[in-house]
Structures are given as structure tokens and as C-alpha cells.
Amino acid sequence: MRLATIIHNSTRRPCLIDPDRGAIPVDLLVPGFAGDLMAVLNQDVYAQACEAARSGPASAFIDLDSVTYAAPYLAPPKLWGIGLNYVDHAGDLSENVPDEPASFVKGSHTIIGPGDPIPLPAQSERVTAEAEVGVVIGRYCRNVSEAEALDYVWGVVPILDQTAEDILQRNPRFLTRSKNFPGFFSFGPQLVPLDEVLTTFNSLADIEVETVHNGRVHRSNHVANMTFSPEMLVSFHSQVMPLFPGDIISTGTPGAVVINHGDEVECRIAGIGTLGNPVRRAGAGEGAE
């Protein structure tokens, strides 16, 4: 079953998602559970919740048509982003394809969820949104090989990664600043377990990611056309530092699109889900450097 956090009776509730019956809160399935969705990545908790959900009464499920999704969780240990990971996207920016992953880290303050506004910071006049597929780490991972990397992955999730592109263009050393304004990392609505992904697709390489701007597909590409595969990215970063359950590696975009106040931007991944956010000018005190 998939995982999601919903807003129910004004409260964030981690849930299992059964496509036929709806959403069921984990606290109804696991006695004493009081954690966030990240705690459900623990295989024992997840397995216990799934077993209980299979026999749960229909009355315990919430109709998915009435569900309001939130960001799955708010305090991941790390958010890794990967730049220029599709050859075509590097060409768009007149950049050379890097010999090693061009990675950066984002803070948890950047997190928003489905439907939340992406605030445009006053410090930037050119912000881009980038649809990506995120890899969610499921267990402690350190110095693993590419061949065993997927053993440490819980699943995948749609992502919208934002960049203050004009700040970055002034100097490539401004990458961290350009990537870390509030609202510059949206993910959700559902975490899709790896077993389901590999049942739907022959491999992660078959996943197609679309950046959608105001209802129009701006750019799309398949994971097969990445310079560095998700497996390689997990292995590579596990050799830099430990990866922990809940860490997310956002694997790169097929194409960024400039966003302005009033726009709607989406990450569409067939078979995985659609993540959408409106774009708004930041209010007073938001997005400050």
C-alpha cells in the first residue's frame, strides 16, 4: 500500500492508501503509534499496518475523493538534489554534462505539500520549477554498491524543486542560496513503495517525468535518459555520508520552467502520481535571504 499524510479534522494524520477503499490512519492500525509518516517507513511498522488494514472495517477508511493531502513529512534527515542529470536539460542551460553527480542539499524549511503555494521570494526575479522523481530511503545506508542500492530504497515520490535562477547565474557558488528559499521543495501526494513501482514498470528507467506549466507539458523525459541512474545516485551518496530512513534524493529534472504569480505547476509521473502547486508572490517576511 502507498503512504500519505492527510489533513483530517484539522489534524495531520499519516495514512495507508488503499486505491479501492481509501485512506486509513496508521494510528487506527498500530496500537500506540504516535509518529509521523517517516516512522511508517520502518518495515516492521509498515508491515503491521498493512496487515491490519487488510482486515480493517470499511467504516475506518476515508474516501480518497474527500482527502486533502499534506507534505508526507516535514523533517527528513536530508534532502539531496541533483543538477543537470538529463543530458537534454544540460543542453538547455548550455552546460557540460558533469562527470560526477552535481549534488546539493536543501533544508527542511523549504518543504511544502500538494496544493500549497510556492512563494516567489523578493530577492529573485526569475524562479524556475523543476519536476523530478524522488527516491525515498527506507533503511540505514552506507557504502553500498550500485547493484544493492535499491535494497535500501523504500519507494518513490513526485517532487517540484525550485531555483532562484537569476541568483545562481550570478555565480555558481550561490547554488545553496538559490535552492533554499521557503517553499522551494514540494513533494507528495503519495509515497509509492518500490515493489509497486517495479510491478508497474520493468525498471526505474521506464518512469517518465513531466514538468507541466499551466496545464501544458513543458518538458518530459524518461529516467533511462539520466546521466546517473537512481541506483548510482544512492550508491554514490552513501559513500559520501550515511543515508537514513526518510532521506530523499531528488534525481534531477527533464526541464525547468520559469514560474510567475498566478501560475500552476505540476510534476506528472504516470503510474506514480501528480503533484501540483500554485505560484504566489511571497508575503511580507517570506522568502527573505
UniProtKB/TrEMBL annotation:
Regions annotated as coiled coil: none
Superkingdom to which the source organism belongs = Bacteria
Q: Which UniProt keywords apply?
A: Hydrolase, Metal-binding
Q: Name one GO biological process term.
A: small molecule metabolic process
> SUPFAM superfamilies this protein is in?
FAH
Q: Which residues form the Fumarylacetoacetase-like C-terminal domain?
A: 78-280
GO molecular function terms listed in the Swiss-Prot or TrEMBL record: hydrolase activity; metal ion binding
**Family indicated by similarity:** Belongs to the FAH family.
* Protein name, per record: Fumarylacetoacetate hydrolase family protein
- What is the native source organism of this protein? Knoellia koreensis
